[in-house]
Amino acid sequence: MNVKKSAAFNLILGLVFWILVSPGVEAASKYVFSAVPQFTPPQVFKEWQPLLKQLTADTGIVFELRTFESIPQFEEAFYKGTIDLAFMNPYHAVMARKAQG
Fold first, then answer.
1. Does the model's pTM come out above 0.70?
2. Whole-number Å distance between alpha carbons of 40 and 97
3. Which of 26, 44, 88, 94 is the most exposed place for a label (fewest CB within 10 A)?
4. Spatial distance between the Cα atoms of 67 and 87, rounded to a whole number of angstroms
């Protein structure tokens, strides 16, 4: 695993740990993950799927990768709350907060 993937893996693993130990938060057995589609869906899958597969093996929690053809499609899904974890610009988190209240 290269340094870039290792850093992303550690970040996601840290987020999962935070979710598991946060008071009042129930851990799910499956999370939907996505990344802002700066590349084609096959390229996103190639980069992220091995990381999520390893994370699933290490934690026992299933991480489903969902890819999108365009940024507007990603934003629509994220703002509706159908994505649990995402690699994105912080601006998207602010906009999702506004959309979801």
1. no
2. 26
3. 26
4. 12
